[in-house]
Amino acid sequence: MAKEAVFTMKLEAELRDRFMDEAQRLDRPASQVVREMMREFVHKKEEEREYDKWFRAEVEEGLRELDDPNTALIPHEDAMASLRASIEEIAAVKRANEG
């Protein structure tokens, strides 16, 4: 990859020295470690934005469904009973696998 830009930053001397020591222990240039950290940071933030976009769309769809008079709603008690049954089923499988 061709070098396209230089990035200059200020940081504490102790932090710089410790970082350089760790990079050296890995037998890797400090600039390579920084690039990897930057890529990971950017990737993580992109994933967070994508998840947020998906989540908001799911909530909006749920709200539209809730407002739709044709949507069949499940009473809270029924949903909780179904959830408890699923939890009990999973616990039984777990107990069977442990025993």
Q: How many alpha or pi helices?
A: 3
Gyration radius, in Å: 26 Å
**Strand and helix order:** HHH
Structural classification: mainly alpha
Distance between the termini: 55 Å
The pLDDT mean sits at: 95
Question: Uncertain segments of ≥5 residues (pLDDT<50)?
Answer: none
Main beta sheet strand tally, sense and closure: none
Shape estimate:
elongated
Q: Report the β-strand fraction as a percent range.
A: under 5%
Portion of residues in helices?
over 70%
Strands, total number:
0
Structure description:
By secondary structure, this protein is mainly α. The protein has a domain at 13-72. Helix content is 75%, strand content 0%. It contains three helices and no strands. The longest helix is centred in the middle third of the chain and has 38 residues, at 30-67. The protein is elongated.
Question: Which key features would you list for this structure?
Answer:
single chain, about 100 residues, mainly alpha, 3 helices, about 0% strand
Give the topology, please:
Blueprint: H1 13-25, H2 30-67, H3 76-98
A few lines on this structure:
This protein has 99 residues and is mainly α. Helix content is 75%, strand content 0%.
